Amino acid sequence: MTDFTIDPVITSLTLPLADWPLSRVFVYNDSRYHWGLLVPRRSGAIEMCDLSTDDQAQMMAEIVKLSGLIRTLPGVEKLNVGALGNMVPQLHVHVIGRHKGDPAWPGPVWGHSPPVPWPDPAAAPLAALVSKD
Predict the structure, then answer these.
(1) How far is CA 17 from CA 28, 78, 103, 108, 129, in A?
(2) Pure H helices in 2-124
(3) 14-19 and 23-28 as β-strands: parallel, antiparallel, unpaired?
(4) Residue 73 carries which DSSP code?
């Protein structure tokens, strides 16, 4: 048994897609971006250094895997990868496909403007890719 839970802010902004060996994979509910989120299923993890050495290596492997999936999606020219945690302390890593001229370009997507939800987050292009994986 584990006491692992997802922060309510994350659950309010995302849709869960899959459980990978370490992380739960989410799609962020903003149709303007191909945006995934990884949350390691480790209770109390706030920073990468809170993970064991093996989990740190697995986290990096999952970041690279999600990055590779997002990179194949239409219009993605650049990947932004970040683990800020200023608003949600639970360790989570954003992987965001960006392109010149997207609504926040060239600045960060965080706090730029309110999200534009997917009509059906389960039908987001990232959701289809993760489900095939």
Answers:
(1) 10, 22, 25, 24, 10
(2) 8-13, 53-71
(3) antiparallel
(4) S
CA distance linking residue 57 with residue 81, whole number of Å: 16
- Note whether 11 and 24 are within 8 A (CB): no
The SS3 of residue 67 is helix
131 band by pLDDT with thresholds 50, 70 and 90: confident
Of 128, 123, 72, the closest CA to residue 95 belongs to 72
Judged against a pLDDT cut of 70, whether residue 74 lies above it is answered with: yes
Question: First CA to last CA across the chain, in angstroms?
Answer: 27
Strand ranges for the chain from DSSP E: 14-19, 23-28, 34-40, 78-82, 93-98
Distant-in-sequence, close-in-space partners of 48: CB < 8 Å, separation ≥ 6: 56, 59, 83, 91
